[in-house]
Amino acid sequence: MSFSGKILDWYHQNKRTLPWRNTIDPYNIWLSEIILQQTRVAQGTPYYLRFIESFPTVGHLANADEEEVLKLWQGLGYYSRARNLHATAKIVVNEYKGVFPDNYKELLNLKGIGDYTASAISSICFNEAQAVVDGNVYRVLARYYGVDIPINSTEGVKYFKTLAQKVMDTEQIRDYNQGIMEFGAIQCSPKKPLCLHCPLNNSCVALQKGLVEQLPVKLKKTKVRDRYFNYIIPIYMDPKENYFTKIEQRIGKGIWQNLWQFPLLESKKELELDEIIFRYKEVLDDIEVNEFLEFNESAIIHKLSHQHLHAKFWIVKTNSDFADKISMEKLKQFPVPVLIADFIKAFKI
Fold first, then answer.
1. Is the pLDDT of residue 171 over 90?
2. Element holding 317 (H helix, E strand)
3. How many angstroms separate the CA atoms of 261 and 70, rounded?
4. The domain spanning residue 336 has which CATH number?
5. Which tens digits make up the pLDDT trace of 206-262?
6. Which of 201, 173, 180, 166 is nearest to 134 (CA)?
7. Do 28 and 104 fall into the same domain?
8. Any catalytic annotation for residue 33?
9. What is the mean pLDDT of residues 112-125?
10. Which of 35, 162, 222, 334 is positioned for an S-S bond with 260, CB 3.0–4.6 A?
11. Could you list the residue range(s) of the whole structural domain that residue 116 is in?
12. Which residues, in sequence order, are bridge partners of residue 312?
């Protein structure tokens, strides 16, 4: 039996029951694929279900406010995915009359849709013979065929796409593409793959040569950058004993664009209390402070793909009313990075 035939047989016996497998509607498939980029299925599935409940059609998503989309996305990370999701929904509604393009080439014109997502949508929804190549597929092909070309190199991307197109099953492309991705996620997993009971073990080059743990090959990542975030959180109590604070929206093209945060003082190293007292007016120049409190003695290290954030939260109590204050009760309505969301949950006045 051929490589693709074994993948299909395995898939038909082992495929998971997932909510987006009950449909070939391109909106649902597109939504699931965007959510599952950089996200495990177990983590992404509840988000998919919440999005479908809140925005059952691409029109509902297009008509939503960006803050509503970002709030629903909160915790998934890589927020550019959410912004692109919203932008693409508007394009589909305004330029395609609410109907997704039905082929790989046109799908590539949509924001946030690259080779992999276009291949997935066109094959699953429209039976177009386009091979998907994601992390799971790279791993299966690299191990089975014994390919040591780095998967994140220009040469590797081209080589594996060509190989994937060559070995795919064009007659059952919908199941084959889902099958090879599922196979990589469950059978040929990154760590502790199930080689002993693998239907491909008799002809897998990596298994025969003892290279399973070495493949696939990846070029070394960019050096991780350390950043030091000091969140300065003013707390004001009015005469009715209602508590207020201050938040601001992140702008620019950096991380967490358009999300909300407490006033941020970024430093070159971890700051101590006396340094915060000296520098807090850089972000709260209109507030007179009664008391400074260090919320977390040790910095919280929040790891992103190319940077590690060392975050500390400083509580600043004041008797002075200040502009643009917001009640503590309303904080949960704003889309914030998970780092801020965790603080809001933990903080008690």
1. yes
2. strand 307-318
3. 13
4. 3.90.79.10
5. 999 999 999 999 998 778 899 999 999 999 999 888 999 999 999 888 899 999 999
6. 180
7. yes
8. yes
9. 96
10. 334
11. 3-209
12. 230
Cα dihedral: 15, 19, 22, 24 (round 10): -100
Structure tokens of 261?
């945060």
CB-CB contact of 98 with 60 (8 Å): no
Same-domain status, 196 and 253? no
E-strand spans in 176-298?
225-237, 243-245, 248-249, 260-261, 264-267, 291-294
What is the 3 state secondary structure string of 5-50?
A: HHHHHHHHHHCCCCHHHHCCCHHHHHHHHHHHCCCCHHHHHHHHHH
Q: How many domains does the chain have?
A: 2
Q: What's the pLDDT at 153?
A: 94
Structure tokens at 308: 């590690």
Query: Both 49 and 165 in a single domain?
Result: yes
Same domain, 100 and 189: yes
- Same domain as 322, residue 173: no
Q: Which one, of 64, 19, 75, 38, lies nearest residue 337 by Cα?
A: 75
Task: Determine the pLDDT at residue 244.
Answer: 94
Tokens read off for 279:
């520098």
> What pLDDT score does 289 carry?
86
Catalytic residue among 33, 66, 95, 155: 33
Judge if 153 and 262 occupy the same domain.
Answer: no
127 in a structural domain = yes
